[in-house]
Every structure is written in structure tokens, then in C-alpha cells.
Amino acid sequence: MKICARCILPETFPGISLDDNGICNHCHSFPEIESLMEQKKEYENRFVELVRKHRGINEYDCLMAYSGGKDSTYTLMLLKRRYGLNILALTLDNGFISPNAFSNMCEVTKNLGVDHLIFKPRFDLMKKIFLLASENDVYSKKTLERASTICTSCIGIVKFVTLKIAIEKTIPFVGYGWSPGQAPVQSSVIRTNPSLMKATQAAILRPLSRLAGAELKQYFLGEAHFSDPERFPYNVHPLAFLEYNEERIIEEIGNIGWKAPNDTDSNSTNCLLNAYANDVHVKRFKFHPYVWEIANMVRAGIMGREEGYEKIYGEQPPELINEAKKRLGLPTN
Amino acid sequence: MRDRVRKFIFDNFLFGADEGSLKDDDSFLEQGIIDSTGILELVAFLGEQFNIQINDDELMPENLDSVNCIVNFITRKKQPA
């Protein structure tokens, strides 16, 4: 299989073309690092201005979607310490959070002085969604570039449960720990609005409900939530506009009690379903669901090509895949 | 402008599908062509390609959810105030 000589995207990636030197079209159209830095500064300034305007008015300033992984832990720390926000951390327990991630969450929220809410949807429903999403074409082709269908299902529920709680509690910011490779800087500070959220919710809820049943509606916004645009929060993912250095992040969050887990795969620091989700995706679509994120980081100079290559083209741990299959009620190898 | 928008949609969301598979009035969200993150990628593209600043309150399906919506939106944005 041919792989881009610069960023590690494989020839099986949707819409890719490789030139005579083996460099892909995405590398050719990637912006210059200097112009990216200017944009980052612009978005951080925007966020700082909004923090000045909205901090301290409501019960909480920010609802942080907190998975207990490395990036969301670092984001939680930055939002608390660098921007001085009063935060409610929210974890959606999908039934596959690693014990080490739970222990990290307890330590980190205690040491940062952050309130923490854990929301655990019914496991039978989550299991049904994961099984159906792994076998069916539920989402747009584009989503396949960014994550496995299992992850997309889980994240979709996380996004709407988080938005729902932010609206109900009138929290002005919702924080996400997307890495710079996962989401562009242009979307790092954006205010959500009822009409767009209604349309995007329908786009995910319609196919999911068709497969898993109407009970899913309880995790999404109802008509009443759309009635007041003023209660719709700003979505913020600060790692897109701040410096991202994995070694330094691990060192800094180590100071607030976070320990690198040894019970997850190389692309996750919190989820025991991830290895299986990756395995299914690679088998169905012939490329790794993290390759877009990691390739973006390699292009931006945030991660070395060799390290990126190792994360993507190393073997998925069979014991984690089997454990996830067992919990999903699937036959193991 | 229309051709540039269509080319972006085909190159980035439909991956070389047949030209006739997308009508200019087709809803991207209803047809499952673009999701919420895709909308943000589309916004980044429009901002850079047409040199316009898109405000948060303009991020609405009415402005972004089909080729025609986008073309009308950009045309309005480009008109002198």
C-alpha cells in the first residue's frame, strides 16, 4: 500500500491523490505554518474577549465534555487555570471507560477543584448502537475520514447530551478537548444556534433512531430546548489555538494527578472500546480511523512522521479487541 | 462561484461521485452528505475562498445547507452594504 511520503495518509483514504513524489493533495493544500499561527492568535484573542464578557454571570461558566483522556484533562486544566473559568466537568460513561481513566478523573477533578457529573446512558441501548453502527452505513462518508462509526455514534450522543445540559443550566461555554488534528482552528470558538443544531441533530438522530429505536430521543434536544437562542452556548476547543506538545501535556497533567493508562490502545487514553472500533473500521474501509487526525498533526509539525506512523500502522492489541467483543456479546477469536 | 462550491463538495464530501448525484437544491444535512463538523469545514473553505467573514449568527441551514443556499449567501455577503 502506498502512503504519503510526508504525512502518512494511505492511498485508500477517500479522495486522496498522490503526486510523482508520493506527496498527497492534502499536504499540498495545507496552509503555511506562519499563517496558521496568526489564525491561532486571532482565535485565542476572541475567546479571551468572550471570557471577559461571560465569566462569573451564571452558576457555571463552562461545561467541559470530560472523557478522562489526556487531551480533555489538559483542556480542563487550561480552562480552569489559564482562563479562570468555573467549570462543571461532564463525563458520558459509555460502559467502556477504563478503570485507570476513572481513577484519573477522580484525581484530576479533586486536585483542580472542579465539580464532576457522570452521566451513564442505559448500556443495552449503547450496546445496540455500537453493534448497529459497526455494521451499517449510518453516517455521511465524510465522517468516516475522522473517526470510526462507533466513535461517531458515541461522540454524537456526547455532543447533544452536553448541549442539552448547557442549555438547561444556562452555561455560556462548552469545552471540548479536540486535538489540533481533529478540528480546524476556524471552528475553535463558535456559538451554536437553534436552527443549525436542529438540522444537525436531525441528521444524526434520524439514522440512529431508524436502527436503534425512538428511545434514543431522550439523549437529544426537545422542542423546548430550541426556544431560546440566548441560552445556546459557545463551543470552544482551545487545543486548536494553543501550543500542543504531547510530552509537555503529559508532564503538566501529571502534576495534577493524571497517569498514563496501561489498559487502553495507543490511540486512546480512556476508552476500552476503541481498539475494536478501529479494527472494524480498518477491515471495512481499509484505512485507520485516526489517520486523518494524526496526518494533520504530522503536517502541522506537532508530531513526528515516525511517531505518527507507529500509532497508525502498528497492530491493534488483540486482547483489547476480544474484551470489547465479549462485552458486546460478540464471538471472540 | 457555483462551480467552485460544487467542486469543493464533490472533492471533500462526495469523493468523485457522479455530477448528477447532487442537485443544487439538495439539502446536505438531509441527504447525509455533511454533518456538523463538515459544516464547519465548509465555513472555513468559504471564508478563505471568497474572502468573507462568516459570523456565528449566519451559521444557519438557510445559508449553508445546499449549493443554492451557499451561492445566494455569498452573493449577499459580497454586495456592498
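qc> Chain A has a mean pLDDT of 92.
qc> done
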